[in-house]
Specification:
By secondary structure, this protein is mainly α. It contains 16 helices and no strands. Helix 6 crosses helix 16 and helix 10 crosses helix 13.
């Protein structure tokens, strides 16, 4: 142990000092759990909720650091909003904070979908008025995020142009992988054309874990991806096959959210674990709960193998996110301080604003707003957030009640 700490003190492992951990895992768990109960609207809306809670309200990190986290997680496969939450927990309270953030944000949705595995039938909630209200409040949340991030991340002509071009590209090419291509293109444009300067007020980021831990995580990520299929084929135990299928789903999907659904269907339906009718019923239920859509895995695991299956599927689909975030962050803090990479990240951050703007229209606005009453409720929610500065969970409750009134 002494030898290990000595190596760390010479710079081989950075960020191990406990004094750099600012908060506690319990604090992170408490905040993340409230977000897990109130974050409706999908991954784009989740980023808006996170920004309001972690950046504006609690000041756990600054706007530029949060934007860089979002950009980094957009590059990584898996559920981007969950990865941002894990990263925030890691920066706030180390590895226990990362686990606490994931548990708090994920558990409410997991429990709800496991219950849905027993209780729901296909389409049962499609006409619920309160659900419509929750869809509408996502319009206000995303609009608030676009407004706030655009002012800080695309304030000038070059970055504003990148944001608008990214929005147009995201709308014209709504296919899997398009967002990754847009972000890569924006990074290259920033690398070549934006000023290569690093602002002096860049806030240092300490994860509590060093590069050795990061390299181990990268090794585990690729090792499991390569050897789990072989182990499943050799052993034949259904739980190993289940873990393999959901681990691959969490490892190979860029964009997260709804993009994972076709891959999950190809994993569970041909294997006979879940039939198409049960799959679609669970998909409908997943739209009614807060938190990450990747928790749909809990429903599928419950249908396939009971409580054990729900636990295995949930752990397997989110494990790649932990490995990738922990593997990337220790290098990310160094990379983002280099002038060339700063210029690239400036382009990426502007593109993220554009992607958010495109998502505000489709799917957030197009799926939520069907009438002047719907748009009026969205304006009320937006006003409560922007003008009256109400916390998101209050606005969620008001919007749910408003949706129920509209639907009656």
């Amino acid at each position: 142990m002494k030898r290990f700490l000595s190596t760390a003190s010479r710079g081989g492992i950075k960020g191990l000092e406990n004094k750099r951990v600012q908060g506690s895992a319990w604090e992170v768990l408490r905040v993340a759990t409230r977000l897990g109960f109130t974050s409706f609207g999908g991954p784009i809306a989740h980023l808006g909720y996170f920004r309001e809670e972690y950046v504006n309200r609690r000041k756990w990190l600054d706007e530029k650091t949060y934007a860089d986290l979002v950009a980094l997680c957009q590059f990584l496969p898996g559920p981007a909003s969950s990865q941002v939450g894990i990263a925030v927990g890691l920066l706030r309270a180390g590895l226990p904070g990362a686990v606490a953030s994931w548990i708090g944000f994920t558990l409410p949705s997991v429990l709800a979908l496991v219950w849905f595995a027993f209780a729901l039938r296909e389409g049962q909630l499609e006409t619920a008025g309160w659900l419509k209200g929750l869809m509408i409040v996502a319009v206000a949340v995303v609009a608030q995020a676009v407004w706030g991030m655009a002012k800080s991340l695309a304030p000038d002509r070059p970055r504003g142009t990148i944001a608008l071009l990214a929005a147009i590209a995201a709308l014209l090419f709504p296919v899997a992988g398009a967002q990754v291509g847009i972000i890569v293109a924006a990074g290259l444009i920033g690398w070549w054309f934006l000023p290569r300067t690093v602002p002096p007020n860049r806030v240092p980021v300490h994860t509590g874990l060093g590069r050795r831990a990061a390299i181990i995580c990268w090794g585990l990520f690729f090792g499991l991806l390569l050897f789990l299929p072989l182990l499943a084929q050799w052993n034949g135990h259904p739980w190993i096959a289940l873990f393999d299928g959901f681990y691959r789903a969490g490892s190979l999907v860029f964009g997260g959210g709804h993009v994972v659904l076709p891959l999950l269907q190809s994993v569970v339906v041909p294997a006979g674990w879940v039939d198409n009718e049960a799959f679609l019923a669970g998909y409908g239920a997943a739209q009614a709960v807060p938190g990450p859509l990747f928790t749909f895995a809990a429903y599928l695991g419950m249908v396939a193998e009971g409580w054990g299956g729900a636990l295995i599927a949930t752990l397997a689909i989110f494990l790649p996110s932990f490995l990738l975030v922990i593997g990337a962050l220790p290098f990310w803090d160094v990379i983002r301080r280099r002038p060339a990479f700063h210029a690239a990240f400036a382009g990426v951050n502007a593109a993220v604003v554009g992607i958010l703007l495109a998502a505000l229209f489709d799917p957030v606005f197009t799926k939520a707003i069907d009438s002047p009453l719907d748009f009026s409720l969205a304006l009320i929610a937006f006003g409560l957030l922007m003008v009256w500065k109400q916390p998101p969970w209050v606005v969620v409750l008001i919007a749910a009640a408003g949706g129920w009134v509209i639907g009656t």
